[in-house]
Amino acid sequence: MPSGSFNARAYSFFDTLLWIACLNLLWIFFALAGAGILGAGPATAAAHIAIRKRVRGNEAPLARSFASHYFSNFGRANAIALPVMGVAVVLAMNWNYFSRSGDVISQLVAAGIFVVAIFLAGAACYLFPMYARYELPLAQYLLTSSRFAFRHLAGTVILLFISAAAFYASSTIPGLIPFFSVGAWLFVTGWLCDRFFSANDESVATAEAAAPDDAVPVASVA
């Protein structure tokens, strides 16, 4: 079957759709296995590692690979995810408190908290795709993803739009949640982040090649 034929493209599409549905079920199962709070981080890490392998054409049996990466990254993934969850809860509680007040100062504080929450959401979109791609000290992942989100605002806006669209679709059609919602969001954001990181790495490599020998090296995910 020619790779460019309609049948080949249709097969690839439905194969990817089925893969996303399986990824969605695996994420839900393993997140629940970790009581939600302790399972979401490792499940997300395992999902993005699997997505990166598929994007790179280096696929492995999904269920076996997912389970292996879930358990092997359980501690490290939680060390990254739990602080982000904690900050998100604090921001949500503070926004809820100040937004209920009618005075101007409280409304300004609520608006500021909302802006910080949006930026945190943008950085979080890069967090586990970055974890799946780069070997960094644990404390550096959130800092580096925040820097990347700020320096690549166009990509960040795209990721936030996709996240909002996935949330809206899931709230409007709850039947999507058990089959596609999380898996589709993870796959699309993971695929996009892989493209963003690759473009960034190429531009950094070009800059380093053109820089004088005594120039300070540029971080690959700056």
Explain this structure.
The protein has helices at about 5-35, 35-55, 60-70, 75-100, 105-135, 140-150, 155-170, 175-210. It is an all-alpha fold and about 220 residues long. The chain has one domain (about 5-210). The chain is globular and about 60 Å long. About 30% of the residues are buried.
Helix content: over 70%
Q: What's the overall average pLDDT, rounded?
A: 88
Number of helices: 8
The topology string of helices and strands comes to: HHHHHHHH
Number of β-strand runs: 0
Q: What is the makeup of the main sheet?
A: none
> How many structural domains are formed by the residues?
1
Helix and strand composition category: mainly alpha
Task: Briefly say what this structure is.
By secondary structure, this protein is mainly α. Helix content is 82%, strand content 0%.
